[in-house]
Structures are given as C-alpha cells and as structure tokens.
C-alpha cells in the first residue's frame, strides 16, 4: 500500500484499487494529515491531493478544488474542515455520489457542529424513532 492510499480486497468498494484521501483545511489541519503520510501528487496533472486554505484563499478556488477532487478517480475520501465546507455548502450538499465520500471535520479554531454536517443530516432523514424500537 502506498502512503496516503486506502485499499480494500479485490471484491471491495474500490475493486481492489488504492484510493487517496484528499484534504481541504487550514494550515494546521492539512499539515497534520501530510505528516501522517497522505500527501500525493497526481501523476498526470502534477496537482496535489490537498488544499491549504487561509484568509487570502478565494472561495471560488476552494469550490474548484473540491469539484476537482470529487471528479478524480484516484480519490476515495475528501476530508474538509467544516467551516470551509460552509463556504461552499451548495457544492458540498450537491455531491451525491458515494465515492469519494465527503467527511466534514473540525479544525483547531472551529469546533465540529453536527447540525451543519450535510451527511449527518441526510442520515438522520433516512431513519425515524420508530425504526429503533
């Protein structure tokens, strides 16, 4: 298994192929994941699987990067800091494919708020209290 890639058996979700984890977040969040070994450069486009967002990053650049990650066939999971996901909420909520999976994560300066997480909201809508009786 290569660094930064997740793999499953040949009959698994990804058909036995390794998939990358992409990260969109503030410098501390992305650096932590890079130190954990997820950093990769796309072989053909030479673009990384991460985006560091700071006060000078345009929302349009975040949106475009998210769309690019979502369309790449080598990415299986996109981790995005929740406060950044809020900046492009329409795009995040519009993602309706299971792969890549979108996970909203907290950051050092912005705690996680479950009420804003689109995946959690969708999951809650799938079940009722009666389902658990």
Characterise the protein shown here.
- The chain has a single domain (5-126), classed as ATPase, V1 complex, subunit F (Rossmann fold).
- It contains five helices and five strands.
- It has helices at residues 27-35, 59-71, 82-87, 89-94, 118-126; strands spanning 5-6, 19-25, 50-52, 75-81, 101-105.
- The longest helix has 13 residues, at 59-71.
- Mean pLDDT is 82; it is low at 7-11.
Note the main attributes of this structure:
133 residues; alpha/beta; Rossmann fold; five-stranded mixed sheet; 5 helices; 5 strands; 18% strand
Portion of residues in beta strands equals 15-25%
Number of strands: 5
CATH topology: Rossmann fold
- How many structural domains? 1
Rounded Rg: 16 Å
H/E element sequence: EEHEHEHHEH
- Assembly state (oligomeric): single chain
- CATH architecture descriptor: 3-Layer(aba) Sandwich
Low-confidence stretches: 7-11
Full CATH superfamily name: ATPase, V1 complex, subunit F
């Amino acid at each position: 298994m290569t660094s930064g890639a997740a793999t499953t058996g040949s009959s698994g979700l990804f058909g036995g192929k390794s998939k990358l984890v992409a990260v969109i977040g503030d410098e501390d969040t992305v650096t932590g994941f890079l130190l954990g070994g997820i950093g990769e450069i796309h072989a053909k486009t030479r673009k990384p699987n991460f985006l560091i967002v700071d006060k000078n990053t345009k929302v349009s650049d975040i949106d475009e990067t998210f769309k690019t990650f979502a369309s790449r066939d080598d990415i299986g999971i996109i981790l995005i800091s929740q406060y950044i996901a809020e900046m492009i909420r329409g795009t995040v909520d519009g993602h309706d494919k299971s792969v890549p999976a979108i996970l909203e994560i907290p950051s050092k300066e912005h705690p996680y708020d479950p009420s804003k997480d689109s995946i959690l909201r969708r999951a809650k809508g799938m079940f009722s209290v009666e389902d658990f009786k």
